[in-house]
Amino acid sequence: MKDEDADWLIYHLIPQDKTITPDEIQKKCGLDAAVVDASLARLERYLLIVRKDGQVRVLSVGESLIACQVKYDQSLPYTIENGVIKARKEQP
Prior knowledge:
Blueprint: H1 3-13, H2 22-29, H3 33-45, E1 49-52, E2 55-58, H4 61-72, E3 78-81, E4 84-87
Antiparallel strand pairs: 1-2, 3-4
């Protein structure tokens, strides 16, 4: 299975309104644990999901857009770390 096919399958197994564990995802999709973990890492890197305390949650469109802006727009005067808004440290 191609990475993008696994990502599509796994993303659509994550409920839109609650969290799920990686083990539950693996049981639902039947893929190897390593494949599920790699897919979740990609989905998190693409700012589509968040993993915290052994749970996986889909980001809303707004959360995803804000995360993308914070990550890539270096002109913003703030950053968000672990849900806390902080003043961005000035680069030398």
